[in-house]
Structure to design on (281 residues):
């Protein structure tokens, strides 16, 4: 069995790739995808600790399941906002969505 | 090979660790190519590969139910939903080629610094040795998960179902054409 450090390192690398994508990409769909990547990395941490942590037990899997559900809800609402924005602004570029920017 | 194995705490090469490395390389490569692609459609397909690789990781960690939930929810539903969103907006869209601007450098440096700090913290922490047996009865991870979920976590479980309903209604209201 691979030690827990390798799983955590993989999750950290994935999180940073997702963070970079969310901060730099212009297309709002890709920003959403990058956020999904970050959520997945956090999920991997939860499940790695549930299997290999100090007090390993199945509760980590329960938390992973909940965060997966919340991610699904987030994607549904995020894409609905995206469709509404596209209808109003005819664009999926994050730079066009600056109505509430101070 | 020695340097790699000492970086990861010097573990024994077994089938599981080889599978871990193959999946890790697959996932990281898919994530990096995701950011490199120019076409939005290719990006959405490459994140499907990331989700499948993560499902393999969950199998390695003994979380069978979560692995299948990952394939159903992420690789199935979320990827397809993203493809729908791309098709409903401008699906021939190409992420524009742009010079590495100041903001991009700052974001890259920030992400790299965060990654370096996290990797350093992971490296210097003394983790418990990896046990060969999972903490739940062998081949019974789904039973163990169901028992915990429906005894200790019943109230959060019900709240999550309410959350899903609210998200569904909210998505319909948001995406509806205004009269």
């Amino acid at each position: 069995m691979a030690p827990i450090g390798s799983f955590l390192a993989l999750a950290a690398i994935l999180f940073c790739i997702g963070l970079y994508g969310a901060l730099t990409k212009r297309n709002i769909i890709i920003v959403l995808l990058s956020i999904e990547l970050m959520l997945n990395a956090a999920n991997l941490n939860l499940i790695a600790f549930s299997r290999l942590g100090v007090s390993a037990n199945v509760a980590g899997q329960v938390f992973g399941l909940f965060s997966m559900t919340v991610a699904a809800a987030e994607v549904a609402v995020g894409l609905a906002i995206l469709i509404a924005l596209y209808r109003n602004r005819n664009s999926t570029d994050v730079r066009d969505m600056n109505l509430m920017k101070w | 090979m020695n340097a790699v194995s000492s970086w990861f705490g010097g573990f024994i090469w077994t089938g599981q660790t080889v599978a871990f490395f193959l999946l890790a390389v697959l996932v990281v490569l898919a994530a990096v190519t995701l950011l490199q692609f120019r076409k939005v459609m290719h990006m959405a397909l490459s994140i499907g590969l990331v989700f499948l690789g993560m499902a393999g990781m969950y199998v390695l960690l003994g979380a069978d139910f979560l692995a299948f939930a990952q394939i159903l929810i992420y690789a199935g539903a979320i990827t397809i939903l993203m493809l729908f969103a791309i098709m409903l907006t401008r699906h021939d869209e190409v992420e524009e080629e742009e010079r590495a601007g100041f903001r991009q450098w700052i974001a890259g440096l920030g992400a790299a610094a965060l990654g370096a700090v996290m990797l350093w913290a992971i490296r210097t922490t003394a983790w418990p040795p990896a046990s060969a047996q999972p903490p739940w009865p062998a081949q019974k991870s789904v039973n163990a998960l169901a028992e915990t979920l429906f005894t200790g976590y019943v109230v959060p479980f019900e709240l999550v179902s309410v959350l899903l309903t609210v998200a569904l209604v909210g998505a319909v209201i948001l995406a509806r054409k205004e009269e």
